[in-house]
């Protein structure tokens, strides 16, 4: 099986939505990406950092999904990254109520030996210098490098972000952030400008409105599945990225046509993620559920 | 050829977008619907009203597109409906700067004899009592009746709107308005509640984010084509409705599968509409342009 290396946060989240609230639960980009990727025929490993307060049961949960945690460092006298947020009624926007960087403040990722030859590398949303440091630790250039980022790094570390973009093949970014990064409103123009910064494939995420994949003059659109209930959008973008990257790793083909299918697989995983709080739905899916919903995506958009 | 009867406004618009502004130009829902429908193999007629200030050249323009204007009444001492608006920078929202109802205030539509047996009836966005009066004038029940509406009628004439909804097969409505009408946020639930009010087919328009078609447990999504430039969104929804209704009229098949294709044809016409000011692009399209872009829609969403 091919190897997918995931770099990102393993964290605590406390979430409020119009439908309820949680105490500290398992969160973090790498957790969502890893759980989403665990439904594909790939070897998945995480590089991250936690504190001594991180519960053993969460390690077990991830390991039961065959996620390799060799690269997750535990800082003996540190506390785990914590994020607390409240979603607005429409679930499309949220306020951050609290952020404790804790062990993330000094995070210096170390890629374990067994994943230095990963076929695909997914750089979750982190400081671009951390993302670069991981690329530099690989023993060979991965067949595909994906990078996720956010407006915070554009505002505070733009030079480093631009350096990181030179190293990657695919960027995933949301529509507002893409417009901020390019200074263009038209998403078609935006994608071209971002591609000029490095990534040959540009994925623009539009939340409940789906996602666009741009490559040269080509464009593909994956809709989000209209769901009866959306409980909690936390992790949707990461589940999407996890499904996208893992499908490509599994197929071991990295062209536009395969990426179209990968985009649908990513949207599929995201659709499960948002139906329950946190990672609740991602830990308990069956192959049958996943395959059935893929058919719904086909019915949704083929004419 | 089958007949499509269009009821709506024929009007003057003055438009400001970030890219420029126009004086009074041809506008109105029926104008956009008619021009969009003129690219299909159908007999299209408009029922509307204008004032004595309405220029002959606009009549000629519509007639040159083989649109039957027998049902467009000219009020000798009246002035044509006028709307002036300004779009915000993102083109997704706009302010109405001026509305002069003029002859529309006393509009009492009269369906001409030659269109009382229309195969398809499209009720453009107007007072629901006017929409009902047109249905009642038909000599036979059309094979399909479509209704477009907006929040203004929900706020001011909800009882009449609900009466009108009992009479129609298809409603086209935007996402915010659908949520207002149903009181539900989930579009899937929203569509079910609106279907319970009458229309078996519910189309929810999401502007640049595409459109959804709901029917019983089925759902289909038509993306909007990502364009290099959007100049002026005015008339996009009407061009969409015109293409949708005219394709069905041409095919003379009114089931879910045909409606999927119709939704793409509608989105296709809307994509042309927004590329220039007002109706400028809709009056000069070639069959080849239209067919080519339909292929782009296929490439955009088939995987």
Describe the structure.
2 copies of one chain form a homodimer. With 303 residues, chain A is of the alpha/beta class. Chain A has a single domain (3-301), classed as UDP-N-acetylmuramoyl-L-alanine:D-glutamate ligase, CATH 3.40.1190. In chain A, 36% of the residues lie in helices and 25% in strands. In chain A, strands 6-5-1-9-10-11-12-13-14 form a 9-stranded mixed beta sheet, sandwiched between helices. In chain A, a hairpin with a 6-residue loop joins strand 7 and strand 8. The model of chain A has no long low-confidence stretch (mean pLDDT 96). Chains A and B meet through helix 7, strand 14, helix 9 and helix 10 of A and helix 7, strand 14, helix 9 and helix 10 of B.
List keywords for this structure.
globular; about 35% helix; homodimer; alpha/beta; about 300 residues; UDP-N-acetylmuramoyl-L-alanine:D-glutamate ligase
CATH topology of chain A: UDP-N-acetylmuramoyl-L-alanine:D-glutamate ligase
Q: Output the structural class of chain A.
A: alpha/beta
Under CATH, the homologous superfamily of chain A reads Ribokinase
Helix amount of chain A: 25-40%
> What order do the strands of the largest sheet of chain A run in, or round the barrel if closed?
6-5-1-9-10-11-12-13-14
Poorly predicted segments of chain A: none
Just give the CATH class of chain A.
Alpha Beta
The main β sheet of chain A shows up as: 9 strands, mixed
Please give the number of β-strands of chain A. 14
């Amino acid at each position: 099986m091919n190897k997918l290396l995931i770099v990102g946060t393993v964290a605590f989240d406390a979430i409020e939505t119009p439908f309820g609230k949680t105490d500290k639960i398992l969160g973090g980009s790498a957790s969502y990406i890893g759980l989403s990727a665990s439904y594909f025929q790939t070897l998945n490993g995480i590089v991250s950092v936690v504190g001594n307060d991180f519960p053993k049961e969460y390690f077990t949960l991830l390991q039961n999904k065959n996620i390799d945690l060799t690269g997750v460092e535990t800082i003996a006298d540190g506390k785990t990254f914590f994020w607390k947020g409240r979603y607005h009624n429409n679930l499309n926007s949220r306020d951050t109520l609290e952020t404790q960087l804790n062990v993330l403040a000094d995070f210096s990722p170390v890629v374990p030996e067994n994943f230095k030859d990963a076929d695909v590398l997914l750089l979750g949303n982190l400081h671009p210098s951390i993302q670069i440091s991981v690329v530099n630790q690989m023993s060979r250039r991965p067949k595909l490098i994906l990078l996720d980022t956010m407006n915070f790094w554009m505002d505070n570390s733009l030079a480093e972000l631009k350096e990181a973009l030179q190293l990657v093949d695919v960027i995933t970014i949301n529509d507002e952030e893409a417009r901020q990064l390019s200074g263009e409103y038209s998403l078609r123009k935006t994608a071209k400008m971002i591609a000029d910064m490095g990534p040959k494939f540009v994925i623009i995420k539009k939340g409940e409105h789906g996602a666009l994949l741009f490559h040269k003059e080509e464009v593909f659109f994956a809709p989000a599945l209209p769901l009866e209930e959306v409980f909690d959008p936390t992790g949707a973008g990461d589940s999407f990225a996890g499904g996208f990257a893992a499908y490509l790793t599994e197929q071991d083909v990295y062209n536009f046509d395969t990426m179209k299918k990968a985009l649908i697989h990513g949207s599929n995983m995201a659709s499960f993620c948002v139906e329950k709080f946190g990672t609740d739905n991602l830990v308990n899916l069956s192959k049958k559920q996943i395959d059935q919903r893929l058919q719904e995506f086909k019915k949704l958009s083929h004419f």
